[in-house]
Design brief:
disordered N terminus, alpha+beta, Methane Monooxygenase Hydroxylase, Chain G, domain 1, single chain, globular, GH, 51 strands, TIM Barrel, signal, Hyaluronoglucosaminidase
Length: about 1150
């Protein structure tokens, strides 16, 4: 589908008919003086009177220097405002009642008491509208205006042609439709100019390229939004990168010429980039000449701006012997000098031309604020006129701060142009990024020459972010990200508020990118969290209205957005969003069925949910790289809600709540992801992307503590028999922190049976011996037992497939008979030991008499009825259940036979966390989760027991719903330092045995809030590859997400800090990067020579560790590594030290 063209004249027509840049305002009769809004927000805007109505005849005064695009735009605005005739002169006053002056008029500006545009920055303008006293009675009789004494004037005075064009764009935004359809112009004085010189985009992404038509439309969009820069750097263009030496074929050169011409018409600088670094010989005069010749060919087309892109190359090797001879051994400084020589030659060419802008360069080290030999080479050798592009503190930074920009300007020694990698999505496969342009500090214009956006593969979809780039580049000091995004939605929606709301909802599901937006679905997520909190606390809860709105949003967008290109590009995400929202609604129905006790309805809805999820995951966008993934919309929120809702249904039915999960410290080769290790299919496998190192792990999460039996770790495959772990240990854990070894292995297949009674949530295989071969893991299976140890065995006829599937706890597997049953056929489920059973439930189809066996005798308890049958047993002791088939009936299919036991504890209780640290005198809250083990609600009392003197809540009566649970906050306060146990007890009302769970509490001294290690002298045993930006000081700079310390790959590494004075250190807080310490010590010293162990951490899990210390007097604090958790070194974002208070 061809994209919708977005030209300045189309923009003007649309704005007059419907003010897209501004939110709707009340009718003129309802307000004394309407607010005037212009986007981008101008530097100065003052109201001057009430304004005036545009008559049918308007004068237009132009001059020999009038910009034709500005004139065309003004004419279009007047025409769409209802003006029937435009009386045009070339400098003389047309004596009309309303006159538009292009290129200013000093006399009129004086009478309006407005200063002209002289002295404004490039691209600046003055826009003034108001009334002046005509004062000439004789001339008034000959005027082409109404019989009043005043004439109205609109003056557009640009400091240059582009400024006049921007004045015309602003004029198009202030024209309003009043009551009765007449257009009005407010009395106004606007003095405006951009704070950044470069504003626009760089087409620098990988993946599916834009079409030629999309590029033309993009240039129109840039110009219509006061952006002046388009950098042509598509990675798919072979003549831009791989074939940079070769001239463009005539047809491609003609297309470039069309782009150059369209850009000029839109007041956009077409900046042509070449990326020669993969093969360039910097010392070769011939290569430099070919680089200049390529630029010269675009210069002949009208191009006057050029970039040398040296990103995404290896600058530690030369491409020719000549570079080795001229610059010496490859390395940072040599590469900086060699590249500078080539770019300087291009800059000399540009200077000789006389009308070419300063050359831009994308350096190989294009991010960060750490100095390096390479940056030193650029700083010292590159022509000072050259502008350096920089992406921020990282490739896709979450924030760009003024201090970072100032540091970058100092490090590179040149003007900085920010290449901002947003909303580019070539790295975010499956994502359409519609979040606000956030995280950029207002005032960046004080330190940079501009900012350009690297957009998405989706050209029209990128306009949501580009709108905000226009706002930020023009006037970053007043930029408000969300307000700007809402204006972009308003424009896209054609001013229709229901469409704006739908776009906002849709964009919320398409916000996350991991850096600027690290929270998934930030508007929906808190609503989902509140829903579960209310439901689990027994309060009324509903998400139905929210889900209905989300489900309706895609169709509202399809009907309400006129931009067909946007609809085409967003189609996959719109379709997927609608399917996921419908799945949410059906999942809500499943929860309603649970609340109503209707298992049959719940199962029917479950099938619909799974079908909708499967359809959502089958949706594909055809553009690479997004074609390899289904669209990710609201992932981590919507899909988790659906999964959690089905868990509630599964709990009510009495089947497995959720399947196990698996995680690993290894990376992945190709599509052989770690989930294949627990898919039950030994023919599939996980394949690591490196060799195993001591400390690497593969961990199975059973989702809840379970009794475990046989464990198998099956590694290697036929064509890579050596790909297995040479030395490893099997360990289990209830909480993921404390681990117990129960087996070892050094072969390709490891099989171990856990000791009887072993209860664990996590089972892991940990590498103890490094090896060269990589890891192939075909299957990691952990057999789980019923809580009582009761095993269920299935036998029966007629012949069919998968008898064990009838009792595997998985509703998506089933036993299916291969033929109609004959007389005497039955499906039997035998217990390994007799049990008291309250109810028997059967999920499946067929005609049968349901029977149970007690003391060797079979008796009927009812008939199989429909896809879900639940029969009351009245707490009988039985050892088998069987389904006696009706002969000749339809072939049965049984997904699950579920005996609901009545002899265990009626409820269970758990507390999160199971252990914690707190401070004396501070209220602390844990969560108590009470669940029922019966096929019915269970009532009882929850009480809390704690050491004497501790404050705990009073007992409360609760009713736990079947299949669900109650999550209750338990707040307690410990009055003194020490250790203690808080026990949460649930006592059932029927006299059954009470159940309880405990929290181990360590109570510490209070500590002061300030970090006394901040910016203090620091040192470490090593720095990864001696990289300056990973040195010890960056663990004490207060930045927990951008800078860090990283060590070499050895266990016995340390980092330490010297405090200002001897201090009683109360707490050390470590913010680990992904390469964390599994075992380590905190050590203290008075002199930095003799160290005393103060605390020890064993089997740490990364993230943030808080280590409280006993009373001491210390000047130095050290973290001494004992065992790394990964194959990398130790890596700390931040190490904080707090004094005891």
């Amino acid at each position: 589908m061809a994209p919708t063209r977005f030209s300045a004249t189309v923009l003007a027509a649309t704005l007059v008919a419907s003010p897209l840049f501004i939110l709707p305002a009340p009718a003129l009769a309802d307000r004394d003086r309407p607010e005037v809004r212009i986007s981008p927000v101008p530097q100065q805007l003052d109201r001057k009177g009430d304004g005036f109505t545009l008559p049918s005849v308007v004068g237009l005064v132009r001059t020999t220097r009038t910009d034709p695009q500005a004139e065309a735009l003004v004419r279009k605005v007047l025409q769409d405002a209802g003006v029937r005739r435009v009386k045009t002169t070339d400098g003389t006053d047309p004596r009309t009642g309303v006159t538009v002056w292009l290129d200013g008029n000093q006399g009129i500006l004086d009478r309006l008491r407005v200063k002209n545009a002289d002295g404004l920055k490039a691209e600046g303008y003055v826009l003034a509208a108001g009334e002046v006293d005509d004062g000439d009675d004789d001339d008034r009789r000959h005027n082409d205006h109404d019989d009043d004494d005043d004439r109205k004037h609109i003056v557009l005075d640009g400091v240059d042609a582009r400024g006049t064009y921007y004045a015309a764009l602003s004029f198009s935004q202030i024209v309003e439709r009043g009551r009765g359809g007449k257009a009005r112009v407010p009395g106004v004085e606007v003095r405006d100019w951009p704070l950044m010189r470069y504003r626009g985009s760089i087409e620098g992404f990988y993946g599916a390229p834009w079409t030629h038509q999309e590029r033309l439309d993009h240039l129109d969009y840039l110009g219509a939004h006061k952006m002046n820069t388009y950098e042509y750097a598509p990675k798919d263009d072979p003549y831009h990168r791989d074939k940079w030496r070769d001239p463009y074929p005539p047809d491609k050169l003609a297309q470039l010429g069309e782009l150059v011409t369209r850009a000029a018409k839109s007041h956009v600088d077409f900046t042509f980039a070449l990326s020669p670094g993969l093969t360039m010989c910097y010392s070769s005069a011939d290569d430099v000449a070919k680089l200049v010749a390529k630029f010269d060919s675009v210069y002949a087309l009208g191009g006057r701006a050029f970039t040398v892109a040296l990103d995404d190359i290896d600058h530690t090797r030369w491409n020719c012997a000549g570079d080795q001879e001229k610059y010496g051994a490859p390395g940072g400084y040599a590469a900086g000098k060699a590249q500078s020589d080539a770019v300087n030659a291009v800059q000399a060419w540009a200077k000789a031309k006389g009308d070419v802008q300063p050359i831009q360069v994308v350096p190989t080290e294009f991010s960060g604020v750490e100095d390096s030999p390479y940056k030193k080479g650029i700083r010292e050798q590159l022509d000072p006129q050259v502008v350096v592009q920089w992406t921020g503190v990282s490739v896709v930074p979450g924030t760009i701060k003024k201090g970072d920009a100032a540091k970058a300007k100092e490090l590179y020694g040149h003007e900085i142009l920010i290449w901002d990698n947003y909303p580019v999505n070539d790295y975010a496969v499956g994502r359409l990024l519609l979040g606000a342009y956030d995280g950029r500090e207002p005032g960046l214009s004080e330190h940079v020459a501009g900012v350009v956006s690297n957009p998405m593969n989706q050209a029209s979809g990128s306009k949501v972010a580009l709108y905000s780039f226009a706002d930020f580049g023009w006037n970053d000091k007043v930029f408000e990200p969300e307000a700007s995004r809402q204006r972009a939605f308003h424009e896209l929606a054609g001013g229709k508020q229901d469409v704006v709301r739908a776009l906002t909802d849709f964009a919320d599901l398409n916000t996350y990118n991991g850096t600027l937006h690290a929270v998934q679905a930030p508007l929906l997520a808190p609503q989902v969290a509140k829903f579960w909190a209310d439901r689990q606390a027994g309060r009324p809860a509903s998400l139905r209205a929210v889900a209905e709105r989300l489900a309706a949003a895609p169709e509202i967008i399809r009907r309400g957005v006129a931009d067909e290109a946007f609809l085409s590009e967003a189609k996959a995400w719109l379709d997927a969003a609608e399917l996921w929202a419908r799945a949410m609604l059906k999942a809500h129905d499943a929860l309603d069925a649970v609340s109503a006790g209707d298992g049959a309805a719940g199962l029917a809805v479950r099938r619909e949910v799974l079908d909708l999820v499967a359809k959502a995951k089958a949706v594909r966008d055809l553009r690479w790289p997004h074609s390899v993934s289904f669209p990710l919309v609201g992932d981590g929120v919507v899909d988790v809600f659906v999964t959690d809702a089905l868990k509630d249904l599964h709990r009510w039915l009495g089947v497995n709540v959720e399947r196990p999960a698996v995680a690993t410290t290894f990376g992945t080769t190709g599509g052989n992801t770690i989930d294949r290790a627990i898919d039950g299919d030994p023919a599939t496998y996980f394949w690591s992307n490196r060799s195993p190192n001591a400390g690497d792990t593969v961990t199975v999460d059973l989702r809840a503590p379970r009794l475990i039996g046989d464990v198998a770790v099956l590694m290697s495959k036929a064509d890579s028999p050596e790909d297995y772990i040479r030395g490893g240990v099997l360990e289990h854990s209830a909480d993921g922190s404390a681990w117990t070894e129960f087996g070892t292995g050094n072969t390709a297949e490891v099989r171990v049976t856990a000791p009887a009674g072993t209860r664990a949530r996590y089972v892991r295989y940990r590498v103890t011996e490094a090896a060269v071969p990589w890891l192939v893991l075909r299957e990691f299976s952990v057999a789980t037992l019923d809580e009582s140890g009761t095993a269920l065995t299935v036998t029966g006829t007629p012949e069919g497939t998968g008898l064990p599937a009838a009792v595997d706890g998985d509703l998506d597997t089933s036993w299916a008979a291969s033929a109609a049953p004959a007389e005497g056929d039955a499906l039997q489920v035998a217990f390994s030991t007799p049990r008291i059973v309250d109810r028997v439930a059967v999920v499946g189809t067929g005609r049968a008499d349901v029977q149970v066996r007690a003391s060797g005798e079979w008796r009927s308890i009812g008939a199989l009825a429909g896809p879900y049958t639940e029969l009351d047993m009245a707490d009988a002791s039985i050892d088998a259940v069987r389904l006696v088939w009706t002969a000749g009936s339809e072939a049965p299919r049984i997904a699950e036979v579920v005996p609901h036991y009545g002899d265990g504890k009626p409820a269970g209780v758990s507390v999160e966390p199971a252990a914690l640290d707190t401070v004396a005198g501070r209220a602390t809250t844990v969560k108590a989760n009470v669940v029922t083990n019966r096929a019915a609600p269970v009532s009882g009392a929850v009480s809390v027991i704690a050491p004497e003197g501790w404050t705990v809540p009073a007992a409360q009566q609760v009713t736990v719903p079947r299949g669900g649970g109650l999550v209750l906050p338990v707040e307690f306060t410990a009055p003194r330092v020490g250790k203690g146990t808080v026990k949460v007890v649930f006592t059932p009302a029927g006299g059954d045995e009470a159940v309880s769970a405990e929290v181990a509490v360590s109570v510490h001294r209070p500590v002061a809030p300030g970090n006394i290690a901040l910016n203090r002298p620091a040192s470490a045993s090593s720095v990864e590859e001696d990289l300056p930006h990973l040195s010890a000081k960056f663990a004490f700079d207060g930045d927990k997400g951008a800078t860090r310390w990283s060590s070499v790959r050895s266990d016995d590494q340390w980092i330490q800090v010297e405090l200002a004075q001897a201090t009683d250190v109360g707490k050390v807080t470590l913010h680990w990067e992904s390469a964390y310490g599994a075992d380590y010590r905190v050590e203290l010293s008075t002199d930095g020579v003799t160290w005393t162990p103060a605390a020890e951490v064993v089997d740490g899990d990364g993230g943030t560790d808080e280590i409280y210390l006993e009373a001491n007097s210390s000047r130095f604090v050290r973290v001494q590594g004992v065992r790394r958790a990964t194959g990398f070194g130790y890596s700390l974002w931040e190490m904080e030290v707090h004094a005891a208070s």
